[in-house]
Design a protein that fits this description.
Elements (H helix, E strand, L loop, with lengths): L5 E9 L6 H9 L6 E2 L12 E2 L13 H4 L4 H17 L11 E6 L5 H14 L8 H5 L3 H10 L5 E2 L7 H14 L5 E8 L4 H9 L29 E9 H6 L6 E10 L12 H14 L8 E3 L6 H15 L7 E3 L2 H4 L6 H15 L1 E2 L22 E2 L4 E8 L3 E8 L4
Parallel strand pairs: 4-5, 4-6, 9-10, 9-13
Antiparallel strand pairs: 1-7, 1-8, 2-3, 6-7, 8-14, 11-12, 13-14
Helix pairs in contact: 3-6, 7-13, 10-11
Amino acid sequence: MTKRRVVITGLGTVNPLANDTEGTWSALLAGESGIDRITRFVPDQYEVHIAGEVKGFNPEAFIEKRDIKKMSLFIQYAVASAAMAYRDSGLRDQDIDKEQLGVIIGSGMGGLESIEYYHEALLKGGGRKISPFFIPMTIGNMASGYVAIRFGALGPNLCVTTACSSGAHSIGESYRYIQNGLADVIIAGGAESTITPLALSGFANMKALSSNNDNPRRASRPFDLNRDGFVMGEGAGIMILESFEHARARGARMYAEVAGYGANGDAYHITAPSPEGRGAMQCMSRALSNAGMQPHEIDYINAHGTSTKFNDHVETLAIKNVFGDHAHRLAVSSTKGATGHLLGAAGAIEAIFTVLALNRGTLPPTINYDTPDPECDLNYVPNVPVQRSITSGMSNSFGFGGTNAVLIFKKVTA
């Protein structure tokens, strides 16, 4: 069977920079940071006081008031982002057979804040204090479930849980479903909200987080010599993926085409990448092979770039090994300096940034890049955006458990 082409026709996001796509893109290009002191709880008793919180989010703009209390934040963010993406795509009910409309939205940790809240309620007041909505508030696939109900999607309905690769894997698997004729349109991406005392303490005790509490907006500094860890973020990123034929038949605007997808595992360590970057190298190579592209055909990489000592060095090494001399001609940026690390939603929002870089001809910067690291010696688009017309872009996502996902996007041609 001939593989179908897959394009992106809608984008939506809620994140620490803004609660819509255009506001997010403008803030990203302006070099703004969404990271600040945590306001959701008093963080003083913890080692880390900073995170990339979503600000000013109004769920009532997207969700019936009576339903909000039934949803953890990650679900609310997913529903809002999906609504924006669906509207952006221009899809109408008459445009789509609902049995050919699917939803694949990943989440690394699901409704953790609801688990913490109701566990405390249980300890203080007993079982009668637990909401009947507690279980569906916490399960990771409820973002996909609520979005499917919202749009009457009767096709594939999945949640991918692969840590920090969840959003990217969700987009990649959606691409495969549409390629193989299992759906015409899929609402795909990732959602996460885990800025809680439990998650903060867990990551901090692993020594994974930046503790630059006095200067939060400069705490996430990918590839910089003085980086000291990642900063937790939250939010959602959603794309509408559609077969090229279906999109063309309804006259849809196409942001970009999904050209390739790679997925593999390190089989090395639960939280650390292999020192030589073998898993990342193989995953990028798989994506290139799937796209039928050579390394020199990639113009831009949105790196995983977590701002940890180990990840940034290993990812740089992997890029150099895959791309050879072309690695130094590539533009490579990490947008986590601006957003923090959205965990299960990171790959989705960074895929959106890669698509917008292609569509708008502007490469987003790596902010807070002040002191070059001799071990990280690529062009990281330091601090200011670069106007450049590109034809292809790659987005890297690597997660705990050694799970990797790489997406390749290109401009749409006839």
